[in-house]
Amino acid sequence: MTSTYPIRKVFQGAADxxxxxxxxxxxxxxxxxxADDAAALHRGEWFEIQPSLYDYMCDLLPPLWMxxxxxxxxxxxxxxxxxxxxxxDIDGQRRCFHGYCDLSENNSSDRMRAAxxxxxxxxxxxxxxxxxxxxxxxxxxxxxxxxTGPSFPRxxxxxxxxxxNGGGHGTILKLLDELTDVEISAKLPVHLRxxxxxxxx
Length: 201
Fold this sequence. Notes:
globular, alpha+beta
């Protein structure tokens, strides 16, 4: 089976326990949450976690399988998509990660692991525009993010939205993927604002 979904980083830094559980539910506000298949939203997403959480999650439920510094959760998120946790040595440092893998795809966890290593082994820390937008979505509180509804044109319904400072216009609702560079910079934490931008691999 040939993979058709992208592998993408959705949070910068190593998530603590509270952040990790929020990231598990980062699509929880989507329309028709209980009626649709969320596989396309989750599969391919990954983020770093604090090393202690690797062992914590391994002990939470019996793993579906364990091998080579990774294990899969036995409780599936949706369909054939489940959480896979990785422990990887990068530049001599043990780091841990969580990713949503579609186990109907052969070697999906190995493909995820290779993508994480490639991304985190870059000599210059940088972020793509997509990574900046995904980080903003991940850290924004539920009250300030959402999805377009019936008041939007039909083709725009169900897209992600975020509240922004509209200057003299007060707070305005914008489509997440249409944020300007200035708006993106304003919403990023200070320590991430000046990282160089890189083209996605």
